[in-house]
Write a structure and sequence with these properties.
Order of helices and strands: HHEHHEEEEEH
Number of helices: 5
Mean pLDDT: 77
C-alpha cells in the first residue's frame, strides 16, 4: 500500500503512452499487467497488528488461547472489510458469516511485550456453501500459531445456508 502512489504514477504514464499510439506498446502492457497483479495480491493478504490488553494474558504472562482466537478472528474481519465484504453491512442485509470450525496449531504462546501480528488470506473457494481462511500469528517476528477456519453464510431470516456469491469469490 505504501507504494500505491508510485504504482498509480507508472500506471498513468503507461496509459498515456497507449493513448498516444507509441510504436511499441509491449512494455506498457506488461507494466500495467504487473501493477494490476501485484495490487490484487497485496489486497488478498492482510497483516493485522494487535495490541493486547492486560486481560489477554495469563498469570504467567503468556497470551491466553481465547485472545489468540480473538486476534485471528479480528484479522479475518479486517480482510473481509478490505475485500468490500463489510460484516456490519452484511448483517443489515440479514446475512451473517458463521464460524463453523477452527483448526489451530500453537507453536508457542506469545508473551507480554511481544509484538503481535496476524496474517490472513482466503483459500480458493472450492465448495458452494463453505469458505476457508488461513492464518499465521507472529510474536515479535517468530511464528507462534497457524490455523484454518471454515465459514458459512447464513440467512438470518430463514436460518438457512446461503450459497457463496460469485462476486465475493472474485475478490
Amino acid at each position: 500500500i505504501s507504494f500505491a502512489p508510485l504504482w498509480l504514477s507508472v500506471l498513468f504514464i503507461d496509459l498515456k503512452s497507449c493513448f498516444e499510439n507509441t510504436d511499441n506498446l509491449w512494455n506498457e502492457k506488461i507494466s500495467m499487467g504487473c501493477i494490476i497483479i501485484f495490487a490484487i495480491i497485496c489486497i488478498m493478504f492482510v497483516d493485522f497488528n494487535y495490541q493486547p490488553i492486560i486481560e489477554d494474558f495469563n498469570k504467567n504472562g503468556t497470551l491466553k488461547l481465547e485472545a489468540i482466537l480473538k486476534v485471528l478472528e479480528n484479522s479475518g474481519n479486517v480482510h473481509s472489510d478490505t475485500a468490500g465484504d463489510n460484516n456490519l453491512v452484511r448483517s443489515q442485509n440479514r446475512i451473517a458469516w458463521v464460524l463453523t470450525d477452527w483448526k489451530i496449531q500453537i507453536k508457542e504462546y506469545p508473551v507480554y511485550n511481544d509484538k503481535i501480528v496476524a496474517k490472513t488470506w482466503s483459500q480458493k473457494v472450492t465448495q458452494v456453501f463453505n469458505v476457508f481462511r488461513d492464518f499465521e500469528l507472529y510474536a515479535s517476528g517468530r511464528i507462534a500459531a497457524i490455523g484454518t477456519t471454515r465459514w458459512v453464510a447464513l440467512d438470518l431470516e430463514t436460518s438457512r445456508l446461503c450459497k457463496i456469491e460469485p462476486s465475493l469469490i472474485e475478490r
